[in-house]
Amino acid sequence: MEKDRLWISDIITKGMRIDEVYVVKKKDPPRKGRKANHFFSLVLSDSTGEIRTNYWGGNEEGPVKKVYDSIREGALIRVRGSSDQFNDAMVIQVNLSNGDDVLEETVSGDYDVSHFVACAERDPEEMYAELHALMQQITDPDIGAMLEKLFGDQDLLRRFKAAPASVTFHCAWVGGLLEHTLNVARNCEAISRLYPALDHDLLLASAILHDIGKVYCYDVSTTITESVNGRLLGHIVIGARMVEGACDRCDQFPELLRTKLVHMVLASHGTNEKGSPTEAAIPEALALNFADEMDAKLERFIRARDSGGPEDTFVVDRALGTKIFLG
Predict the structure, then answer these.
(1) Which residues of the chain have pLDDT under 70?
(2) Which residues are registered as beta bridge partners of 315?
(3) Dist. CA 87–CA 113, nearest whole Å
(4) What is the pLDDT of residue 114?
(5) Which of 113, 25, 21, 28 is nearest to 73 (CA)?
(6) How many CA atoms lie within 13 A of 266 on its CB side?
(7) What is the pLDDT of residue 160?
(8) What is the per-residue pLDDT for 309?
(9) CB of 312 within 8 A of CB of 326?
(10) Beta carbons within 10 angstroms of residue 137's beta carbon
(11) Where are the alpha helices (DSSP H) in the chain?
(12) CA atoms of 52 and 316, how far apart (whole Å)
């Protein structure tokens, strides 16, 4: 990280002067405050976190709305203001009555994506080499040929190494999909040793393929957002189609094996309520669901625990619905 940049994670005390560029993650419409001043709020972010920012104008709504309308979600803006504390959280206050506190949009064409979007701590090339080594354990020639067809597509491989695994829930960073896939594949490789009755090659290949549709589900720029395909189709449907297509490109791919591989992707979330069109009907699909959910939830659980401050005993993760002990 650049030492001369004020990261959001460094805004930890009241009264700090802020003069830095952040990303607009969310906008809340202008409204009237208790003292008749009009204001609006933004959620700003960089690769270290998020912070709410309040823009305080005067008693006329028009000028405040004009500034609000000039700001786009996903844009980079320069913020000049002061840090404050509200409801046990740090915020930035931009108050025009102080004379020198302003909020102005900056040109967003030239920036370092790593400043604004979190990136995997591990090198993607190193992680993919480990995943490829796991692929080499697969002895079934049809599955091996299918994986070669799929990952031999250099554009897809580039996307796979760079894609996040989600927008916010788990591994929500550049390279997060590869990191999550590697973890799930390792889990499944270990499970197959504990339960030798499982089809090792089917389970391991499906671990590698279960989230492959996510390569087309996210747009990464100054923020991570869901793509149109991701919103309208979802990664499970997209991934199932990709697996079907890869099998179809192989000569005389066994039909039952093709069906099992597609089933593994479709059932990877476990239940209809969690997004799977079908529920596990073979033991390998059940094992994959447990391995996938364990990695996603453990990663978020650990990250939530590590987000606690020195004075905290518990932190609450609302997505998990869990109070996490920090002792």
Answers:
(1) 1-3, 36, 99-110, 308-310, 327
(2) 324
(3) 31
(4) 82
(5) 25
(6) 17
(7) 98
(8) 66
(9) yes
(10) 12
(11) 61-69, 113-116, 124-135, 141-151, 154-162, 176-194, 200-209, 228-232, 235-248, 255-266, 283-306
(12) 19
Residue 4: the pLDDT is: 80
Q: What is the pLDDT of residue 1?
A: 53
CB burial string 211-241: b at 16+ within 10 A, e below: bbbbbbbbebebbbeeeebbeebbbbbbbbe
Token pair for 118:
């979190």
**Residue 298 has what DSSP assignment?**
H
What local confidence, expressed as pLDDT, does residue 107 receive? 58
Distance (Å, rounded) from C-alpha 149 to C-alpha 194?
A: 30
Contacts of 298 (CB under 8 A, 6+ apart): none
Structure tokens at 15: 């009264």
The domains located in the chain, with CATH, are 8-113 (2.40.50.140), 117-306 (1.10.3210)
What 3 state SS string does 266-290 have? HCCCCCHHHCCCCCCCCHHHHHHHH
